[in-house]
Amino acid sequence: MTSELFVYLTLPGAVAPVTAGRFKLDTDRQGASVGRFVYGRRYLERSDAVSIDPIELKLEERTFETARLHGMFGALRDASPDYWGRRVIEKHAGKDKLTEVGYLLNSPDDRAGALGFGRNVEPPAPLRTFNRTLDLSRLQELADLIVADEEPSETRPADRADLTQVQDLLLIGTAMGGARPKAVVEDGDALWIAKFNRRDDNWNQARVEHAMLTLASECGLSVSQSRVTQIADRDALLVKRFDRQHSREGYRRARMLSALTLLRTEDSHLDRDRWSYVALAEELRRICAQPRLDASELFRRMTFNALISNLDDHPRNHAVIAMDQDWKLSPAYDLSPSIVVSIERRDLAMICGDRGRYAHADNLLSQCERFLLSRAEATRIINEMEATVRRRWYEVARREGVSNEDCQRISSAFVYEGFRPSPEPIV
Ligand SMILES: Nc1ncnc2c1ncn2[C@@H]1O[C@H](COP(=O)(O)OP(=O)(O)OP(=O)(O)O)[C@@H](O)[C@H]1O
Ligand SMILES: [Mg+2]
Prior knowledge:
By secondary structure, the protein is an alpha+beta fold. The chain contains 14 helices and 14 strands. The chain has helices at 41-45, 74-78, 83-93, 100-106, 136-149, 157-163, 168-171, 205-218, 259-262, 277-287, 291-307, 361-365, 375-399, 404-410, and strands spanning 2-9, 18-27, 33-39, 64-66, 115-118, 182-187, 190-196, 226-231, 234-240, 244-247, 250-253, 255-258, 319-322, 328-329. The structure holds adenosine-5'-triphosphate and magnesium ion. Magnesium ion binds at residues 178, 316-317, 334.
């Protein structure tokens, strides 16, 4: 079976896409797939052409080929809907499961990054209208229905009828990745990702995530702008999109690649030994315009995740962006504490040093040179951040509206004992 599509790209400074190339996916009878991509000749002739991926899809006149990721290039996979978006599209299209190319073609154009996809050689006009914050309560209702549908016993027939009409409303925003219910809304001159609380969350996720982004900013990290908004009796988190920039003519779009792509790895846990902050630092040094800045920022993020037990820091939760020519680490996003019983040892999702994923101060320090930091600098960063998190987490959380009960629920996440265990007693 062969499926083909055109890949569009919104160039730096522009607000409408041009055709960048063509992608073809061949799947044989055994189900093995090979993907091929070529840049269009007219695109390569442009003086302002940029690459889709500066390592895997360099701006060259040749056929790129991959058998990894079921034939999907990482850059295309990053522009494809993830768990949540796929659920919405399946409801909308009335299909159980689409092919990878099907998901790309059926997802709306407000996906992360600067790419677009279609069957025609000429790109469609860019999206001009977006959901507004006013639509949030309807969006939240629809998200609830989809979540409820994951648990069939709880779904009433009336809800099912409603689900068949999951309108364009919710479809907008589904191309954004991640598993949590979300939608994209326009507010003022910016696009925001609305992340909805789920009724089965252990705490007020919107407020806690907002507090973590605020705490990260106090620790000196560059973070996505966020705020909490109330919809009916619930809160939702609004995170400002860093891959869109408003202009009078429309939205400029940044190219975006996940760390999963930079590390040439997959979501599967089988690929987990390649999920690594240390390796990611090396990749940033290869592609970023200011490697020293970005590598040390990554070091801070890794340290912050260890200090708040954000153990869901998988490679889709890190990205690089290029609003113009130059690539840089994106602002931090998706920061949440996890609650784990162990107080002796906690593991991050990615390798952080000689002792693997162990969230321990010495382990974070062990490879600091690869983040272009001297041992003295790295030690200072860890000490300062540890002190800030210890001293400020509760105050920041309360100030940002996290209830006292929720603070109790998450309290064991901060500077857990094993981060710097006291020395072994001498016997
Ligand atoms: N501020 C932002 N601007 C642009 N893109 C973003 C922003 N925040 C997140 N994204 C993109 O949207 C995706 C989903 O967002 P996020 O990770 O916050 O959702 P999630 O559902 O909580 O994810 P997970 O499945 O990791 O729990 C991210 O992987 C990233 O590609
Ligand atoms: Mg995420």
